[in-house]
C-alpha cells in the first residue's frame, strides 16, 4: 500500500512538483468536474506528467489522458454556463443527505426518478456498512435448551396487512410464543394487533400507524416513520436480539442493528417481488428498490432463516453465503391442533347438520393462486356425485374464493359444500377438527423459479391426525413422505406401515379427485395415516423444534462470526478486482435484458421474448450491423454474452460459438437458452482482461456493451488482438460520450438539473443510473469518443478500423426532431459506438 501523499494547495503546486520530482499529480475533487484553477494548472505547467482525479467519497481515481482532459474542459464549460444561468448554485443533490433528513415520508410527492434515487441511496448506505452482530453473551445453554438473558424483540411492520388468521398469522404468534419461553422478556412490536398474542399472555405494543395506505411509495416511506418510533424504543430496551419477519421495503431493523449493535435474526419467507411476478398482473413498479431492501436485510442479518431449500437458493443467488442461511420448515402447535375425540367430532358435525356417516373433507387457507384452488374446485362435483356421504368444509377467504362459490352455486352443492369465510385462528383450528380428510392441492411453481412455500396448513393437518391428500411439489412432497399414491387406495390388501399421506402429481385434477374418492371409500386408513402424520409433527415439525433450530443455528453461526472478527485482515483487494466484483454481482443478480421481459413458466418463450425486444423494439439495426449471419463455419468468441441472445443468432447462422463471461448466472442462462433450442456452444467463466485461450484461436471476437465495464479496457482489446487469428475481425460496442444519452440525460438532467455533479463524478452518476441493480452493486461504466477508442485499437495493432454510431429509440430524440427517422438520427446522436477492426494477416 502506498503512503498517502502530502496534500498541497494549487498555489504551491509547481514548487512541490519540482521539489518532489513528481511523475504526476493527483487532484482531489469536491464535485464532478475540475474547477478553473485545476484546469489552468494542468494546461500551464504539468506538461507530460500523469494527471489523476480523486473523488474521496467514492474512493475512485480516474487517469486523465488527453481525451478525458478534452471531455473535462467541455464539461467545465457546460457546467459554468449552467451555473451562470442558475445564479451560481447547483441544486442540492437528491438522496445525498443523512437518511433522517431525506424526508422519506414525502416520497408520494416525488417523481419516480427522485423516489428511486432517495430510497436506493438509503439502502446502499446500509448495504455498504453492513456488519452482522453475533448472538453471544446473553444466550446460555440450560437443561431445556437455550435461554436468552434480557429482553428480546419480535418485530413485524406490515401495517397494510391487518390479518386475523392464516399461515402467516399463526407462524408469527407461535414463533413469538416459543421465543418468549426462551427469553427473560419478549416484547412484540407490531404494526397491527394480533389477538392470539394476547391469548398467549405475550406483551405486544402496536407501533403507531404511519398514516398511509399500502402503496409502494408508502411502504418505502414507512422506513422514516418506524425508524423514529423504534429508535427510541430500542435505545430504552437495549434488546439482546431483534427477530423480524421481514416486510417488503422496510429495513429499519437492519439500520437499528447497525447503529445499536443488536443481533438481528431475519426470517425471510420468499420474495414478494417473485410472488408478484408469478401470480399478479401488476408486478412491482419499484421492483428494484424492494429487491434492494431484501439485500439489505440479508447483508446485515446475523442469520437468515428460511422455510425451504428453494428460498435458500434464492438468497444464495443474491451473493449470500450458504452457511448463513438456515432452512427451517414451518410447523404446528400440537397442543392447539389435535384430533377430536369421537364425541367432539360428532358434536362438530352436528353443527353443520351432518352425522358420523358423513366423510368431511377440509381445507383452510387464503384461497391464493398457489393453493391449487382450481384443482380443488374441479373435484367438488365429481366427488359429490360418486360419494353421496362426502361433505366439504372450506375455511378462509381470498382471491379465488369466488371461483369456488360459483362452482357450488352452478351445481347446486350448497348442502354439500360449506364455505365458512375467514375465521380467527383458534376458531379455524376448532372447526378443522370436524374433518376426516385434509387437502393441500398446491400445484404451481413460480413463473421461472421453484415453488418456495412451506404451507403452515400442511403441518396443522398432520397434527390433527386426519388423512392428508397433498402433491409432490417441492417441500410438500418431502414432508408428506413416505406416502401412498391414489392407485394404492384401490388395492384390497393394502397395508400401511409408515406412510403418512396420499400424494398426487401437482396440477393433476384427475389424480387428486381419485385420491379423495379412494380415501372416502377407505375410512379404515384414516386413523393409521393420521397417527403417522401426527407423530412426524411431534418428532420434527412442532413450533418448539422450529425455534430450537433457530437458536442452535444462531449460536453456531455467531461463534463463526466472532472468530472471523478477530482473524487478521488479509491484503486489501485491488481496485480492479473491486470493480469486477461489482460487475459480477450486478449481472449474477440482474441478468442483462431480463427487466424488459414478462416472466413466464415457458422458459423458451422467456428467451424468445428477450430476443424480440433486443433485436426488435430496442435495436432493430443490430442483426445487420453486428453480422449475425455472415460467419458460417467460423469460430466466434463472444465476451459477455449475457443470456446468450446475440450468440444464439451467430450459432443459428452456422458459426461455432464460445461464450466467456464473468457472471456465472449469465453463463447458466446462456447454456439453458442454447439447450432449449438444440444448439451447441462452449461456455466458460472468465475475465476479458485475461482470456484463457491460446493465441490465434478465433476468426471473430464479438462483444456488445461489455468492455466499458472492465477496468482496463486497453488490456481487454489487447487480449482480443492476441486470440484472433491473423485476418480475424473484432466487432465491439462501447458506450459513446458524444451522444444525447450522455450529455442530455446523464450530464445535464442528472448531473446539473438534479444536482448530482455537486457530489459525484460523472462515472459514479453513470454507475448509479445506466445499469439496473437491486443489490447495491454499482458496476463501472465508461464512455468513449470515436477518437479515443480508435487510438486504443490502432495502438494495439488493429488495422482497417471502422466506427459507426448506433442506438436511439423513438422516444429519445428532442420533440423538434421526432419526425426525422431514428435510423438517421442515431448516426449522429446514438449511444453506441460499434467498432470493427481487422488483425493484420502478417503480425
Task: Give the secondary structure arrangement, pairings included.
Elements: H1 13-20, E1 24-28, H2 36-45, E2 50-55, E3 60-63, H3 66-85, H4 112-128, E4 139-142, E5 145-156, H5 167-181, E6 183-190, H6 195-199, E7 203-206, H7 216-237, E8 241-245, H8 252-260, E9 264-268, H9 272-279, H10 287-300, E10 303-306, H11 309-316, E11 325-327, H12 342-351, E12 359-364, H13 373-386, E13 390-395, H14 401-410, E14 417-421, H15 425-432, E15 437-439, H16 456-463, E16 467-471, H17 475-479, E17 502-504, H18 509-521, H19 526-540, H20 543-565, H21 575-589, H22 603-618, H23 622-625, E18 635-639, H24 645-652, E19 656-661, H25 664-677, E20 682-685, E21 698-704, H26 713-723, E22 724-735, H27 740-753, H28 762-769, H29 786-796, E23 799-806, H30 822-829, E24 832-838
Parallel strand pairs: 1-2, 5-6, 5-8, 6-7, 8-9, 9-10, 10-11, 12-13, 12-15, 13-14, 15-16, 16-17, 18-19, 18-21, 19-20, 21-22
Antiparallel strand pairs: 2-3, 4-5, 22-24, 23-24
Helix pairs in contact: 4-10, 5-20, 7-8, 13-14, 13-18, 16-19, 27-28
Amino acid at each position: 500500500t502506498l503512503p498517502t501523499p502530502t496534500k498541497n494547495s494549487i498555489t504551491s503546486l509547481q514548487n512541490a512538483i519540482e521539489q518532489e520530482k513528481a511523475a504526476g499529480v493527483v487532484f482531489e475533487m469536491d464535485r464532478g468536474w475540475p474547477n478553473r484553477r485545476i484546469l489552468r494548472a494542468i494546461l500551464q505547467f504539468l506538461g507530460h506528467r500523469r494527471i489523476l482525479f480523486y473523488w474521496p467519497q467514492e474512493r475512485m481515481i480516474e487517469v486523465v489522458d488527453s481525451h478525458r482532459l478534452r471531455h473535462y474542459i467541455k464539461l467545465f464549460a457546460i457546467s459554468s454556463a449552467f451555473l451562470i444561468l442558475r445564479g451560481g448554485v447547483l441544486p442540492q443533490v437528491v438522496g445525498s443527505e443523512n437518511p433522517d433528513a431525506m424526508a422519506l415520508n414525502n416520497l408520494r410527492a416525488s417523481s419516480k426518478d427522485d423516489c428511486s434515487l432517495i430510497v436506493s441511496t438509503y439502502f446502499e448506505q446500509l448495504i455498504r456498512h453492513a456488519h452482522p452482530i453475533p448472538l453471544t453473551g446473553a444466550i446460555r445453554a440450560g437443561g431445556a435448551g437455550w435461554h436468552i438473558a434480557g429482553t428480546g424483540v419480535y418485530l413485524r411492520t406490515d401495517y397494510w396487512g391487518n390479518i386475523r388468521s392464516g399461515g402467516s398469522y399463526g407462524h408469527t404468534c407461535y414463533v413469538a410464543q416459543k421465543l418468549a419461553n426462551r427469553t427473560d422478556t419478549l416484547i412484540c412490536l407490531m404494526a397491527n394487533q394480533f389477538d392470539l398474542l394476547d391469548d398467549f399472555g405475550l406483551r405486544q405494543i402496536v407501533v403507531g400507524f404511519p398514516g398511509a395506505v399500502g402503496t409502494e411509495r408508502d411502504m418505502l416511506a414507512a422506513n422514516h416513520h418506524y425508524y423514529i418510533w423504534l429508535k427510541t424504543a430500542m435505545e430504552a430496551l437495549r434488546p439482546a436480539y431483534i427477530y423480524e419477519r421481514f416486510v417488503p421495503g422496510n429495513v429499519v431493523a437492519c439500520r437499528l442493528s447497525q447503529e445499536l449493535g443488536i443481533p438481528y435474526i431475519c426470517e425471510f419467507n420468499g420474495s414478494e417481488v417473485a410472488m408478484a411476478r408469478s401470480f399478479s398482473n401488476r408486478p412491482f413498479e419499484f421492483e428494484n428498490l424492494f429487491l434492494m431492501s431484501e439485500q439489505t436485510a440479508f447483508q446485515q442479518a446475523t442469520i437468515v432463516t428460511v422455510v425451504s431449500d428453494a428460498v435458500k437458493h434464492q438468497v444464495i443467488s443474491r451473493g449470500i453465503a450458504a452457511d448463513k442461511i438456515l432452512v427451517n420448515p414451518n410447523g404446528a402447535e400440537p397442543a392447539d391442533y389435535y384430533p377430536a375425540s369421537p364425541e367432539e367430532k360428532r358434536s362438530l358435525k352436528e353443527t353443520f347438520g351432518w352425522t358420523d356417516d358423513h366423510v368431511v373433507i377440509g381445507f383452510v387457507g387464503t384461497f391464493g393462486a398457489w393453493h391449487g384452488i382450481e384443482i380443488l374446485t374441479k373435484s367438488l362435483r365429481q366427488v359429490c356425485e360418486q360419494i353421496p356421504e362426502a361433505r366439504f368444509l372450506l375455511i378462509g377467504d381470498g382471491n379465488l374464493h369466488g371461483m369456488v362459490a360459483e362452482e357450488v352455486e352452478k351445481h347446486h352443492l350448497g348442502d354439500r359444500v360449506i364455505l365458512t369465510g375467514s375465521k380467527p385462528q383458534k376458531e379455524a383450528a376448532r372447526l378443522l377438527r370436524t374433518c376426516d380428510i385434509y387437502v393441500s392441492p398446491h400445484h404451481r411453481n413460480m413463473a421461472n423459479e421453484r415453488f418456495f412455500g412451506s404451507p403452515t396448513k400442511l403441518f396443522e393437518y398432520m397434527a390433527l391426525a386426519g388423512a392428508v391428500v397433498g402433491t409432490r411439489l417441492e417441500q410438500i412432497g418431502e414432508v408428506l413422505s413416505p406416502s401412498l399414491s391414489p392407485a394404492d387406495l384401490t388395492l384390497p390388501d393394502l397395508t400401511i406401515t409408515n406412510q403418512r399421506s396420499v400424494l398426487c402429481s401437482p396440477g393433476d385434477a384427475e389424480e387428486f379427485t381419485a385420491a379423495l374418492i379412494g380415501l372416502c371409500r377407505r375410512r379404515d386408513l384414516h386413523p393409521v395415516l393420521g397417527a403417522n402424520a401426527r407423530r412426524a409433527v411431534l418428532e420434527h415439525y412442532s413450533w418448539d423444534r422450529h425455534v430450537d433450530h433457530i437458536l442452535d443455528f444462531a449460536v453456531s453461526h455467531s461463534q463463526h462470526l466472532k472468530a472471523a472478527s478477530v482473524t487478521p485482515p488479509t491484503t486489501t483487494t485491488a481496485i480492479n478486482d473491486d470493480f469486477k466484483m461489482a460487475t459480477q454481482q450486478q449481472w449474477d443478480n440482474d441478468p442483462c435484458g431480463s427487466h424488459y421481459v414478462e416472466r413466464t413458466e415457458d422458459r423458451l418463450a422467456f428467451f424468445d421474448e428477450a430476443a424480440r425486444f433486443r433485436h426488435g423494439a430496442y435495436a432493430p439495426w443490430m442483426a445487420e450491423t453486428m453480422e449475425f449471419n455472415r460467419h458460417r463455419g467460423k469460430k466466434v468468441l463472444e465476451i459477455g454474452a449475457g443470456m446468450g441472445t446475440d450468440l444464439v443468432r451467430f450459432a443459428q447462422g452456422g458459426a461455432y460459438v464460445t461464450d466467456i463471461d464473468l457472471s456465472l448466472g449469465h453463463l447458466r442462462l446462456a447454456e439453458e437458452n442454447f439447450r432449449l433450442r438444440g444448439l451447441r456452444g462452449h461456455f466458460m467463466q472468465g475475465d476479458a482482461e485475461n482470456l484463457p485461450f491460446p493465441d490465434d484461436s478465433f476468426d471473430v471476437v464479438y462483444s456488445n456493451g461489455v468492455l466499458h465495464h472492465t477496468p482496463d479496457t486497453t488490456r481487454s482489446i489487447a487480449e482480443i488482438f492476441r486470440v484472433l487469428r491473423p485476418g480475424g475481425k473484432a466487432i465491439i460496442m462501447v458506450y459513446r460520450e458524444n451522444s444525447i444519452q450522455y450529455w442530455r440525460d446523464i450530464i445535464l438532467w442528472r448531473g446539473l438539473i438534479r444536482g448530482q455533479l455537486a457530489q459525484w463524478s460523472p462515472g459514479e452518476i453513470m454507475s448509479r443510473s445506466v445499469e439496473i441493480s437491486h443489490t447495491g452493486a454499482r458496476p463501472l461504466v465508461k464512455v468513449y469518443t470515436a477518437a479515443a477508442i480508435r487510438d486504443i485499437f490502432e495502438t494495439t495493432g488493429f488495422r482497417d478500423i471502422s466506427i459507426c454510431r448506433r442506438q436511439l429509440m423513438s422516444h429519445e430524440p428532442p420533440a423538434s426532431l421526432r419526425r426525422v427517422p431514428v435510423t438517421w438520427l442515431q448516426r449522429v446522436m446514438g449511444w453506441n459506438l460499434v467498432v470493427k477492426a481487422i488483425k493484420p494477416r502478417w503480425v
